[in-house]
Design brief:
alpha/beta, globular, 23% strand, QueA-like, single chain, nine-stranded mixed sheet, 2 domains, six-stranded antiparallel sheet
């Protein structure tokens, strides 16, 4: 298998008609369609299937159909579903220039001086944030202003960065946190491909029912289909739930413009995982962990590589926990024939020992991991996910799970009335062994 950096993004293209993109969610979350690929007992590959097997015999791909309301029936008893409990913030702010023109600021992530998104969100009176600026050429100098409901916010340009601006926000009343300021004055940022303005209903529907920690500019959309009714059915079947936090950045929509992946820089995102969650993962890794969403999956696989770091260097500093883009592939190549391949149990055990040694109750760091064909999954057995854009890093991740079958899966979805992207339908994809 060639190194994923040599992959050509054009090999991960398909035609996505505009009418297949779900512009709005279904009224009932758990009525979205659910495509099931593979599963326990399926060994992988495109073996011919008989018409009475319950599988799709037309293209010989192991596919079945259900809806999210019945997802518990598709998961093994005793397995662990891992959700991303990040919360989408109202990251779009519309300011006015003194001359009356409008300037839109899109808050991406906090400035580098803050340890994590949570601490930056809790800043009172003022904060610095990296932002995209709509109408930047019209904003020559001085502060722009936003006033709403007794709140006055000033924004000043601090620095022009390579792909965004560093903005200093200050506000009155100064006793409010930046999270409160955004809730009062901002709008939920919908994905650009929906090509419509945010509506009142989006404030509730573009948020999972378990969203907890402010920080994302995009929803972990695989979780949008889950309801309290679904959770009750999971509990009945003794399927456990676990929560990690990855704050989704605008980079999730960043198109791959490079012909080869070696020239594409993966966006870095904050992850935050409690010690008790890592203990829960360790207890279930042999029974089966299922990631709900690509962000949960990237967090879980990042934890494996962080654990490997602590095996190699038990005295590793917290600042060195971050996972870079190609690090897993470089480590795997380095270990080939030289060092043993560490199991998920060994990695998580070492990570917990490192946390004990450093009196750490949570892992807070950044991950830049890219998961593409050639990647070996250490933590998960399956992924619950929506259908993704052509020529995207998320489609590379799907291909890493199911191999070339991704084309048949997506063709099946396109020809069987599945709705695509953030507000669309979803799937359970079992890892091809």
């Amino acid at each position: 298998m060639k190194h994923p950096s040599n992959l050509h993004i054009e090999d991960f293209n398909y035609e996505l008609p505009n009418e297949k993109i779900a512009k709005y969610p279904l009224e009932q979350r758990d009525q979205s369609k659910l495509l099931i690929y593979g599963g326990p007992g399926f060994s992988g590959g495109l073996e011919p299937q008989t018409s009475d097997s319950g599988l799709n015999s037309t293209n010989q791909t192991p596919i079945r159909e259900s809806i999210y309301a019945n997802i518990a029936d598709e998961l093994p008893q005793g397995s662990l579903l891992v959700f991303n409990d990040t919360k989408v913030v109202e990251a779009r702010l519309l300011f006015q220039k003194p001359t009356g023109g409008a300037i839109e600021l899109f808050c991406l992530e906090p400035a580098d001086q803050y340890a994590d998104i949570t601490s930056a969100m809790l800043q009172k009176g003022s904060v610095q944030w990296k932002c995209l600026v709509g109408g930047a050429k019209k904003w020559k100098e001085g502060a722009v202003v936003l006033e709403v409901e007794g709140l006055k916010i000033l924004a000043n340009k601090v620095e022009i960065l390579p792909d965004c601006f560093l903005i200093e926000f200050s506000w009155e009343p100064a006793g409010l946190s930046f999270a409160e300021v955004l809730h009062m004055a901002g709008d939920i940022p919908l994905p650009p491909y929906l090509n419509r303005e945010t509506e009142e209903a989006d404030k509730e529907r573009y948020q999972t029912i378990y969203a907890k920690h402010d920080g994302s500019v995009a929803a972990p959309t695989a979780g949008l289909h889950f309801t309290e009714n679904v959770f009750a059915q999971l509990e009945q079947k003794q399927i456990q739930k676990g929560y990690v936090t990855l704050h989704v950045g605008a980079g999730t929509f960043k198109p791959v413009k490079a012909a080869q992946m070696k020239d594409h820089e993966m966006h870095a995102e904050f992850i935050d995982v409690k010690k008790s969650t890592i203990e829960q993962l360790l207890a279930h890794v042999s029974k089966g962990i299922i990631a709900v969403g690509t962000t949960s999956l990237r967090t879980l696989e990042s934890l494996y590589w962080i654990g490997v770091k602590t095996i190699h260097n038990p005295s590793l500093a917290s600042a060195d926990l971050a996972v870079s883009q190609w690090e897993p592939y470089e480590n795997a190549a380095e270990n080939s024939g030289k060092k043993k391949e560490y199991s998920a149990e060994e990695s998580l055990t070492a990570l917990l020992q490192w946390m004990d040694k450093n009196n750490a109750e949570r892992i807070i760091t950044k991950t830049q991991i890219i998961i593409a064909p050639g990647y070996t999954f250490r933590m998960i057995r399956a992924l619950v996910t929506n259908f993704h854009q052509p020529q995207s890093t998320l489609l590379l991740l799907i291909s890493a799970i199911v191999g070339d079958d991704w084309r048949r899966i997506y063709e099946y979805a396109l020809t069987h009335d599945y709705r695509f992207l953030s507000y669309g339908d979803g799937s359970i994809l079992w890892v091809n062994k």
